[in-house]
Design goal:
The protein has 282 residues and is of the alpha/beta class. The chain has a domain at 8-158 and 185-217 and 268-278: Vaccinia Virus protein VP39 (Rossmann fold, 3-Layer(aba) Sandwich). It is 38% helix and 20% strand. The structure holds S-adenosylmethionine. S-adenosylmethionine is lined by residues 14, 17, 21, 28-29, 32, 61-63, 66, 82-85, 88, 107-109, 124-126, 129-130.
């Protein structure tokens, strides 16, 4: 049976995400795994800490299954993931830790799972891209057991004065100058990026108050190492053509060179906010 199409703006956003992730699957997890926090762990680990002890876990926007594999290693027994991209899920299915996991191509707004199927629902850097987030919240509440945990990681911006901020400053004029036919569709709902916004959208679905903490990851390295990491992290780069990408790269490498430490490295911090909420108890 075919699922009904989402509204036009959501469909455009989802087509964009699906096509990028089918073209370059697996990039996000490589980026995350090479960006440690000060204690050497990743933002996947920070999110997994929030659902420690959960036996049945669903990941919304699971991509290549890196977070699910980590959860399997920590003892979760029943794992499931949903993603728009068949290419990403193909990589997830190839992970031995996920041999028994239920990995489905689909939309987080229409989950193919029964009521009360999971102790925890997680989502790493994906909820913030989703349209109809109220519907995602309602679906997460439906598939959670009463009192189950929703834990999401959403982008919290660049650390001031470091290389991610520099990159974004240099990128901005290119985005402004881009012709309309290269513009990206609008992704996500602003509310999913703040604690207050998440409170507003999760409460009607029956969730309790949102808990919130911020972790900082470091993409840092030499400017030449940093460049590919930055270009993978930001979907906006798809707006630039080849010539503009080369120009931006030259500008970035020249500006970054002046900021290197004695080892040639440059700091490139990004904040990730981790939000948690409990579904209504029985
Ligand atoms: C930035 S990537 C993050 C992937 C993964 N969570 C990670 O951090 O490694 C966002 C992922 O969310 C998926 N996605 C976006 N909107 C979605 C939706 N409405 N339903 C299911 N998956 C979605 C995309 O296909 C993509 O794989």
């Amino acid at each position: 049976m075919n699922s009904p199409r989402p509204p036009a703006t959501a469909a455009a956003a989802e087509d964009f995400l699906r096509s990028i992730h089918n073209r370059i699957p697996g990039r996000q997890s490589v980026g995350v795994e090479r960006a440690p926090r000060a204690d050497g762990t990743t933002s996947y680990a920070a999110l997994a800490d929030e659902v420690a002890g959960a036996r049945r876990v669903l990941d919304l926007g699971c991509a290549d299954g890196a977070l699910l594999a980590l959860l399997a290693g920590r003892g979760a027994e029943t794992l499931a993931g949903v993603d728009l991209s068949a290419g990403e899920l193909e990589l997830a299915r190839a992970r031995p830790e996920l041999a028994g996991a239920e990995l489905r191509v689909g939309r987080a707004q229409q989950l193919p799972f029964g009521d009360g199927s999971f102790d925890a629902v997680v989502s790493h850097m994906a909820l913030m891209l989703m349209s109809d987030v109220d519907q995602v919240a309602a679906e997460a509440a439906r598939v959670l057991v009463p009192g189950g945990t929703l834990a999401v990681a959403v982008g919290g911006g660049a650390v001031e004065g470091e290389a991610v901020e520099l990159f974004l400053t240099l990128l901005r004029p290119y985005l402004k100058a881009a012709p309309a036919d290269r513009h990206m569709p609008r992704l996500g709902d602003r509310r999913s990026r703040t604690r207050e916004g998440l409170d507003e959208l999760l409460a009607p679905a029956g969730f309790g108050p949102v808990g919130w903490r911020t972790v900082t990851i470091d993409l840092g390295g030499t400017p030449a190492e940093l460049w590919p990491a930055l270009t993978v992290c930001f979907y906006d780069m798809t707006v630039l053509d080849e010539r503009q990408t080369a120009e931006l790269k030259a500008e970035f490498l020249a500006s970054a060179a002046g900021r290197q430490d004695a080892d040639g490295r440059i700091a490139a911090g990004m904040r990730i906010n981790i939000a948690t909420a409990r579904s209504a108890g029985s």
